[in-house]
Structures are given as C-alpha cells and as structure tokens.
Design goal:
393 residues, 17 helices
Length: 393
C-alpha cells in the first residue's frame, strides 16, 4: 500500500511523532547509521507506528537522494501518515536540538578559542577526528563501492575507477568538484542502465551542466553561504561524513572562511553532538557570519534534502525501481567516497603534526575496529582529556 493509499488511522498522534524526533535529536549519538537503526528499532519494532515496508521505502529514498541520510529518513517517516506537515515538523524537531548545541559551542569557541585549555582540548580532539573520518571512509567504501576482494573489485571496476580518480584529484588539487561527481553518475548510468530516451536516440545527445560575533555578518557573505551550502545539500550523495570533502573544498580552499584546524574542529563538534552529523554546517556558518550565518547555512543545507524527500515521496514506489536512477546514484556515490578519502589525506597531512597526534589517530582507528560498543562521542571525550594532559601538564 502506497502513501497515498494509506487510509487507516495512525496509531500515534502528530504530537507524539514530533516529541519522538525531538528526543532523538538531542539524545541520538553515533552518526547516521546509528540514527537510522534507532528509528527502525523504535518506530517499527517497538512502537509499531511505521510498517516494515514503509520504513524500507523511506530508507531507499534517503539513500537514492542527495543530502543527509538520517534527516531524510526522518522527514519521510513524518510524511507517511501526516503528509507535508508531518514531514516538516519531524525534520525540524530532529535537526533543531543539535543546531542549538552547535551554535552554543560556536559561541564558546569564539569566546575561548584562544585560551590554552581550549587549544589543548582540540589538539587531542582534532587527531581523533582524523581517525574517525578514516574509519568512516573505509566503511563507506566497503558498503557503497565494494569489498576489498579481487572478485568484488573486478565486478565493480568502473566504480573503483571513479573512486580512485576522485581520490587522486582531491588529494593533489586539494579541492572537490561537484561536476566530477555528476559526471561519474551520468557515465555509470549510460554504461550500466541507459534510460529509454537515450536508447532510442540515434545521435549523440549533449547535456549542459551548468565578540562572540553573534550578529557579525555581511550580506554578501550570507549570499555566498546560502549558495555554497545549497550546493552541499543538493549535490552531495552519501551519509554523514560524505559531505566533509565538499565542505573542505569550499570552506577552507575556495572561500578561506576557516583554516585547516578550525575545519577539523568543526567536524569534531559534529561528532560530540547528537543528531545528524551534517549539523556541523551550523557551527561553520556561525564562525563565518554569526547567528545569521548559522541559520542560513543550516537552512540551505537541509532545504534541498527536505524537497528531495517530500516531492517524490508519494510516487517513490515507481522511482525506486528505475535502474537508470540507481546506476546514476551508484556512480556519484563512488566518486564522492573517493573524494572523502582524498580529503582525509589532505586534512591528515595538516592536522597530524607530531607523534602524540599520530598515536591518537591510530588509537582511534584501532578502538573503532576492536571495541564494538564504543561510540564516537566517547572517543572524542577521551581525546579531549588526552589533549589537556599532553598540553597543560
């Protein structure tokens, strides 16, 4: 039964749904994979508000569309029984708690960022973040490109080619190009599953791809923030940290809004707060243009994913079966993850500055591999304590 055909009265009220996502927004640690798992456990298995079929449809749409995975799934589940209003309120409730947290942390960062204890905290945290991103890159590669076996690589060699090209270009040029990702998507779609209109065409077609500083901002900068973060929300495929290379290319390399260490700190802030990892855009926006910058950055990033979720939601059963769209997304995803690995190399070269930071990064990777129940915020806390101990004692 599709969304438009659902006639039975939902087993929950809109208020109950909003309160659930509000709670998940302020207490849901662990990144996109964990958050998606919490929704399945709570809403499908325990509360039985959402059917298994509806949940799987939402997860498929969230994986196919660009933008943050967990936020898109939350928006879709809000849409299931309460339409646009449910989608809007669920999305706002999910994002708002972590947005407030990163703005508060941004205020503290601007006020105390120059103090020795704050520098010491982020000395340790920055190194741990490199380890976390590296481990996330490995998991994303295994999940979205293929496993590291000869047979799997042979089967997915085109995706591996996109992956390696994006990795090398990102590492060498230290920038990330959206057109590279889109080109990978179109090429893979044409090779693996060309759409019907392309099969019928006899001639080649061409496609044109065209203080605390709370109120300190410039209108021109706000416009740049709006445009850049809209692109981030509209063109970046993959969950959680997949947006990092795109943000790094714009925030550090193109616009020079933040330096390398500030960018790593921004990623760290996303790790230590609950809710979607992508909320780091609020922290970045605050550092660049105060509270207005934080609001514009968050709105510009999440509005595309909201639209990409609610517009196709009623028709998604047909969209999900389109092999051309699946191939397009597979190509883009491979390039994006390759760029993420390239960005890890670039950031690590500038953030791993001595033996202690190298050891913290390696220990982070080992902890994520061998300590199954450990979560990123716990690692960040330990790294902060180590940073304080190494720098101040």
């Amino acid at each position: 039964m599709s969304l438009t055909e659902t006639k039975t009265k939902p087993a929950y009220s809109l208020k109950q749904l909003v309160l659930y996502f509000l709670k998940l927004g302020y207490s849901g640690f662990g990144g996109p994979v964990a958050l998606v798992g919490y929704m399945q456990r709570d809403l499908v298995e325990n509360k039985k508000w959402i059917s298994e079929e509806e949940y799987k449809e939402g997860l498929a749409l969230a994986q196919l569309a660009p933008g943050p995975l967990a936020a898109q799934l939350g928006i879709y589940l809000g849409f299931v029984h309460y339409g646009l209003l449910g989608a809007t309120l669920a999305g706002l409730a999910f994002v708002l708690p972590s947005f407030i947290m990163v703005v508060v942390i941004g205020i503290a960062y601007k006020m105390f960022g120059g103090l020795p204890w704050m520098q010491a905290v982020f000395y340790g945290v920055g190194a741990a973040v490199i380890g976390i991103i590296a481990m996330s890159s490995y998991k994303l590669t295994m999940k979205s490109v293929s496993k590291f076996s000869i047979e799997a690589i042979k089967q997915k060699w085109i995706l591996w080619l996109f992956y390696l090209v994006a990795l090398i270009i990102t590492a060498v040029t230290q920038t990330e190009e959206v057109l590279l990702f889109v080109a990978a998507g179109f090429i893979y779609m044409i090779i693996k599953a060309p759409p019907q209109w392309m099969k019928k065409a006899k001639a080649a077609n061409s496609i044109l791809l065209t203080g605390i500083g709370f109120w300190n901002f410039e209108w021109g900068t706000l416009g740049q923030i709006a445009w850049f973060f809209t692109k981030a929300g509209a063109f970046v495929f993959g969950s959680g940290l997949a947006i990092v290379p795109f943000l790094h290319g714009g925030v550090v390399t193109e616009y020079h809004w933040l330096d390398e260490h500030q960018f790593v700190d921004a990623v760290a802030v996303a790790m230590i707060t609950p809710g979607p990892v992508v909320i780091t855009v609020g922290f970045i926006g605050y550092l660049v243009a105060g509270f207005p910058g934080a609001c514009v950055a968050a709105l510009a990033t999440f509005l595309p994913c909201y639209l990409f979720t609610v517009i196709p939601a009623p028709y998604f059963k047909k969209i999900a079966k389109n092999v051309s769209i699946k191939a397009f997304v597979d190509g883009i995803t491979a390039a994006v993850i390759g760029a993420l690995v390239g960005a890890v190399i670039v950031i690590a070269m500038r953030s791993i500055i001595d033996i202690p930071t190298a050891l913290i990064a390696v220990a982070t990777v080992l902890a994520l591999i061998y300590i199954k129940k450990i979560q990123e915020p716990q690692i960040i806390l330990v790294a902060a304590i180590l940073g304080l101990a190494l720098k101040l004692l």
